[in-house]
TrEMBL record:
InterPro entries: Rossmann-like_a/b/a_fold (IPR014729), Universal_stress_UspA (IPR006015), UspA (IPR006016)
Protein name in UniProt: Nucleotide-binding universal stress UspA family protein
Organism: Kribbella solani
Chain coiled-coil ranges: none
Domain UspA span(s) in chain numbering: 7-142, 154-291
Length: 291
C-alpha cells in the first residue's frame, strides 16, 4: 500500500498575508499533485481589561475560528476542484503549531506578517521563528508584494558551496521542474584580500581567476541536481560584493528565491544566517528557506 504524499501546509489566520500564502501554495499543490492542509492556531488570550458586558465564550471563539478555516477550504475547493484540501485548527501559538506541522509536511507556506504583526515590520515574529525551526522547507510570501507574472519563470538559488546550499539547490530544481521554470544559480564573490585585512583592499588580485574559481564552485554544486532534473534549464550568475544584496536585487525579477538556512559565513550556533535573514526581510518575491 502506497503512503499518502506529504501535504503542503499553509499557515492561515485570515490576514491578507495568509490569503496570499494560500493562493501561492494552491498553485504549487496543483502543479505537484500534493494535498493542501490549511492550518490555523487557536491560542487563548487573556484580556486583563475586558470590555464590560462583552465576553466571548471560549467555545464560540473556537467555533468561529474553525468556521473561517472551513470557509477558506470550501472556497479553494470551488476554485481548484482537483485539489485535495483539508483544514485543521490546532490549540497553541502559531509558531509552535506550524513548526510541529512541518515534521510531516512537504512544505510550509505563510505570509511574512499575520493579524498579530506590528504594521512597521516587514517580517513578523511567526515567520522568523518558523523559518528558523521548521523541519521542512518554508516559503514566505512578502508583505504587500504581488508576484509578477513573467514570460519566463525563474527560480533563483543562492550558491556558496555549503551543505545548506546543496539542499537549497535540490529544492530549487524540484520547484523549477514543477513550475516549468529555469534556475539561476547565483554566487556572490568578493576580493579575497578583504577576508584577511581591511587595509589590504588595494592589493592586486587576478579577478578572472576568482571568477573562474567561482564558476567552477557553482558548476560542481549544481551538478547533482542538474543530473536529477535534466529537463530544467539553468545558468550561472556571478555578482561582486554582498551575497544578501545580490539576492535581494535579483529577487526583483524572480518568481521564487531559494536560500539555505546558513552559509559558509554563519556561526554554528545560529539557526538562520545573516544572508538568509537579510533576504527574508528584503526580498521582492516569494522566498524559500531550506534547512
Amino acid at each position: 500500500m502506497s503512503s499518502q504524499p506529504a501535504p503542503i501546509v499553509i499557515g492561515y489566520d485570515g490576514s491578507p498575508g495568509s490569503r496570499a500564502a494560500l493562493n501561492w501554495a494552491a498553485a504549487v499543490a496543483e502543479r505537484t499533485e500534493a494535498p493542501v492542509r490549511i492550518t490555523g492556531a487557536f491560542e487563548i488570550m487573556i484580556d486583563t481589561q475586558p470590555t464590560p458586558g462583552y465576553v466571548v465564550p471560549l467555545e464560540a471563539a473556537r467555533a468561529a475560528a474553525e468556521e473561517a478555516l472551513l470557509a477558506a477550504a470550501t472556497e479553494l475547493r470551488g476554485e481548484r476542484p482537483a485539489l485535495r484540501v483539508e483544514s485543521t485548527l490546532v490549540d497553541g501559538g502559531a509558531p509552535t503549531v506550524l513548526i510541529e506541522a512541518s515534521r510531516d509536511a512537504r512544505l510550509v507556506v505563510l505570509g511574512s506578517r499575520g493579524l498579530g504583526g506590528w504594521s512597521g515590520l516587514v517580517l513578523g515574529s511567526v515567520a522568523l521563528q518558523v523559518t528558523a525551526h521548521a523541519e521542512s522547507p518554508v516559503v514566505v510570501i512578502p508583505h504587500g508584494v504581488t508576484p509578477e507574472v513573467h514570460d519566463e519563470l525563474t527560480v533563483v538559488v543562492g550558491v556558496d558551496g555549503s551543505k545548506p546550499a546543496e539542499k537549497a539547490i535540490g529544492f530549487a530544481f524540484e520547484q523549477a521542474a514543477a513550475m516549468q521554470a529555469k534556475v539561476v544559480a547565483l554566487h556572490a564573490w568578493a576580493n579575497p584580500f578583504l577576508t584577511y585585512a581591511s587595509g589590504a583592499a588595494m592589493l592586486q588580485f587576478d579577478q578572472e581567476e576568482v571568477l573562474e574559481d567561482s564558476r567552477l564552485l557553482v558548476s560542481e554544486s549544481v551538478a547533482g541536481a542538474a543530473a536529477e532534473y535534466p529537463d530544467v534549464q539553468w545558468t550561472i550568475e556571478l555578482a561582486g560584493g554582498s551575497a544578501a544584496l545580490a539576492l535581494t536585487e535579483r529577487s526583483g525579477t524572480a518568481d521564487l528565491l531559494v536560500v539555505g538556512s546558513r552559509g559558509r559565513g554563519g556561526f554554528t550556533g545560529l539557526l538562520l544566517g545573516s544572508v538568509s535573514q537579510s533576504a527574508l526581510h528584503r526580498t521582492r518575491c516569494p522566498i524559500a528557506v531550506v534547512r
